[in-house]
Amino acid sequence: MDMKSSHASLLTDPVPVNKSRLRMHSSLLGYSQQDSPLSPGKCSRSNSRKSTGSVDDVRSNGWLDAMKASSPPRKKLLKGSSAQVASIDFDIEDYFSWMLEYPSALDSFEKIIDLAKNKKIAMFLDYDGTLSPIVDDPDCAFMSESMRTTVRSVAKYFPTAIISGRSRDKVFDLVKLTELYYAGSHGMDIIGPISSTLCKSHPDCVKSTDQEGNEITLFQPAREFLPMIDEVFRTLVEITKDIEGAKVENHKFCASVHYRNVEETNWTTIGQRVHDVLKDYPRLRSTHGRKVLEVRPVIDWNKGKAVEFLLESLGLTDSNDVLPLYIGDDTTDEDAFKVLRESNHGYGILVSSVRKESNAFFSLRDPNEVMKFLQLLVNWKRQERKHGKK
């Protein structure tokens, strides 16, 4: 099977046209009628619906603890450093102790290459915090041109997919590479090389055509939730208007409530309001990411399932000569790490500058180290090709 075929035609979702498809991202819709599109933090925040629950709810059910646990610690400056010196957000001794259990993928590169000998590497990548830095405004999480060049080179040698919590359209707009496969909304919106046989076995596959008339295949196991997610998104925008720094995004099959720019004293309030909204939607649940609450459908699907589906789509599921690698930084990536660990069929690489318990095998500190690791993989494969190896 040609793993690189038809990438350019697999980019457009033939769902009914809405404002998002007309280049106005749905994350702006909640403000479009009364708020002007000013810079972050400048939107009017009034007339919000107040929380009706008790703030004890989010404390007793563990939400507040989870919100704190999933949020990176404040940065510390190295002793003797000036304001111009880059700060770090981890304790060095503690981090290096942790790395004994999750060794650096850079330091372990030769070991990883030994594991990959005579095997096809399939590369899976998260976006935020992996290919781009974590920033205050998620709309500004741009990957560098050097990272884009590196990822393009990776896709030249290995089947490569990005699995993101963002909508598929949004992550493609940020990455801008047609050589890749894309899975948005934590894997609930996949566009890729899905065969007719596989499509028939999955009722959530949809055959359609894009705007240029090319045949495309979508896999969307949560299609029935689209109206519900839109409704909840609008409610979340309304109830967080008066919380300074809060930002709500519609990722099509899930909605995100960011509290990265919210004062910590207001985290309980924002958690309680989201909690109250979900009381009316038993088919939705909330998961915790890095200073974000993600509202998602209650279905048996996650990034791990997306990895399995993409491997099956590529004809790489039951092959002993395949080595899947997944690089990610967030809680939702743990589902993918777990699938690879439990199947003994690949390795997860956690991107983190702090100690975390994980299902990954290896670690990288930040997107810069991710880029270095990917460049090493490309250089290794080029050398193999140079010496006549496939």
TrEMBL record:
Its EC number is 3.1.3.12. Residues 30-59 are annotated as: Disordered. Residues 44-54 have a biased composition (Polar residues). Pfam families: Trehalose_PPase (PF02358). This is Trehalose 6-phosphate phosphatase. Keywords: Glycosyltransferase, Hydrolase, Stress response, Transferase. Pathway: Glycan biosynthesis; trehalose biosynthesis. Removes the phosphate from trehalose 6-phosphate to produce free trehalose. Trehalose accumulation in plant may improve abiotic stress tolerance.
